[in-house]
Input
Amino acid sequence: MGKFLVQCSTVVSFALSLGFSARVNAQASREQFPYRDSKLPIEQRVRDLVARMTLEEKFWQLFMTPGDRDDPTHDYSHGAFGLQITMGDKPVPAGMSQAKYHAVRINAIQHFFLDSTRLGIPIFAFEEGVHGVVREGGTTFPSAIGLAAAFDTSLMSRVASAVAHEAKSRGIRDILSPVINIANDVRWGRVEETYGEDPVLTSLMGKSFVEAFEKLNIVATPKHFIANVGEGGRDSYPIDVSQRFLDEMHFPPFKALITSSHARSVMTSYNSIDGQPATQNRALLNGKLKGEWGFTGFVISDAAATGGATVLHMTEASNATATRNAFESGLDVVFQSSWEQHRSYLAAFQRGVVSDSVMNASVSRVLRAKFELGLFERPYVDVDSVDFWNRSAEHLKLAREAARKAIVLLKNDKQLLPLSKANLKTVAVIGSDATEARLGGYTANNAKGVSVLTGLREALGAAQVKFAAGPGRISREYVIVPDAQLSTMKNAKRIPGLQGEYWDNNRLDGTPKLVRTDAKIDFGWTLNSPGRGIPFDWYSVRWTGSIKMPPSTVPKRIGVEGNDGYRLYLDGKLVIDNWRKQSYGYRMANVTFVPGSTHEIKLEYFESTGNARVKLIWDAGVLRDWSAKIDSAVAIARLSDVAIVVAGIEEGEFRDRSTLKLPGHQEELIQRVAATGKPVVVVLIGGSAITMSPWLDHVGAVIDAWYPGEEGGRAVSDVLLGDYNPAARLPVTFAMSDGQLPLYYDHKPTGRGDDYLDLTGQPLFPFGFGLSYTTFEYSDLVIEPAIMGPTGSARVRFKVKNTGSRAGDEVAQIYVKDLLASVARPVMQLEGFSRIHLEPGESREVATDIGREQLQMLDRDMHWIVEPGTFRVMIGASSKDIRLRGELVVQ
Output
């Protein structure tokens, strides 16, 4: 604290601007209260503090939001659960790192809550941290799916420990991670945040993550409870699956992180489960989580999810009843996206819709964690230690190691890889992802990484590496008409935008309910209506005004994208007539306009079911040059010894994919480059599975780098040039075709067959798959005892030998199959794995124990038991590449 008070004058001024003031007398009077006595038991301190709190003070311990104290209209005088504190809009003081400035801000805000609120209750400074602290100045590691691909719990522990140290040095004491949802449909846009499709791999990776944070006394928050990927791979879609499927597939990682790793917080999901929103699902929260598993921490909602019962699921008439049912069902903290949103929730508490007993129980859970973290005694951080941790040389080295260990070698015909530096005169590097160095979702603003192009140029020399961007990931046919091109007359003056007339019917009938000026037509009304007094699912709109052509590159086509129905008029002429309700898409009309000319425009639209989209579009300035860009890439490939095509996908939160193929014209790019006859290596960037059938057979090698973190470009170069031997494995199944989805390895036996009329049911690359630059041999499987009694476990031992000429890692995987059970069981289940390093010719014994916990199942009556019988134990390099097998009899 002393060092904080002697910061530079700029920082002191900043702290004062946040309301930093020492109310010495008030603070001194608080010190005599029992809750301030660190020698007393925590439960006694919690009871004392709760008894002194007003209703408003209790409410604010149950309300969390992104924000800070820069806005003086935001009243935090009653305290707060916590804040997700940004870097603010002021420049970082000269000579100070971004991370240190962030810590100064957190300290200053913490000072306010300790010194300027009645009871001096500290806040949780909370943040996201899936693969690094999501604030400027931190180290960005590979995405979670990449870390899972490493199949290395020790590496996961070290990465999580690095992130935890960076977070704690700033004053962040609650991390909204990890994501331990099971990614059993890879169309889901959030697969990159997960540890894949397998509950055992997810549990082990999640445990390593949580334990690293809890060891540093930082609250970890496994999420999202539960199963927030639904049919079609769509985010937060309703879940209507059996209790057995939840218990066997989705619950195990959460149970492991709560009961074994002692996570102190859990975040609910947005979706409904069996018709009940997750935020107010009594069976999930009070039943499974707090009852059956004995969870004593606090449950938070996902951002703005509590009100979802009102506006999405339609199970509540108001936020007040949604709040009451959420808290009575086991929710403890409402997470909203802004300070202003507290009003309706506070009003519900003030009206008494949440009982005192329920409210006090939730407040106690929050305060217990704050006491456990020592926030009342040690609320501030030493800001001089921040730069020791954030983006330290050791953490950057670890980021490169993690990226190397995450890279999966998917194909390597004729040992094309590693590339021989001595034989390379010219290398063609192709693709926008070769320079963008994308880091994936939940990454700090403006975070930058080393690109693949930079990594190769550092290793080979800039003159040796030629680059062509290719057509990119996205091929645009049109853009939204800019607001600068739209205008309307009002009070005899021309003003920007179009006049919008809104009716509370879908017929443009009568007097408009609302008239306003809209800057441009780019609307998506899903949860809300266009405006006050307009039903969200029953309205019509007419926009009128003028559209001015650009001084050059005038459009050749203009149109509308969105839900039908709509009509578009230009200069009084109907050019697009889609006045019916059917689907979503776009329609464009051919136009001939003079540069700089102005034309009257009218767009009419109606909606009768809600979930509306409407955009005014044209093709002005859109370059249809993707074919020419491919030609340029092909030209440099012809002049090179090898072509490296770096291709990527588009995805993310609420950005689910309908197809797994590479977007844009990247498939054509790969095929055209391969047609040159030059050796081609494809490097994939993304966080999920990709289909490859149109081009896979035409290229020599493929590696999946995922989102490899800020040192990713160097790591990819290390693998391509043989400075590192890849060994990662796929944590998700790669399908041959979208039509196979969902496709995951641990399914239950089919009632007939796996195949399609026109395609196999087998994957392109199975779960656990990954190649190496060397070869490995498995032998000498021993299971002892071969007959396991009612208690105890069996030890599985086998040998792995490096039979190749290069040192490398092998990921030996242990699978189990119940050969006869009273209910259908998965065809196989991962029960363990071991990543080991072997020199050429070296052999090592791998041993693991299989206990009754790994063999248990839910019987017909939904009781967890181990049925007597025979279990097949399979050892292999993937879920398909089984090298050894034996049997274990359980009595």
In short: The longest strand covers residues 808-818. Residues 1-22 have pLDDT under 50 and may be disordered. Residues 327 and 358 are 7 Å apart (CA to CA).
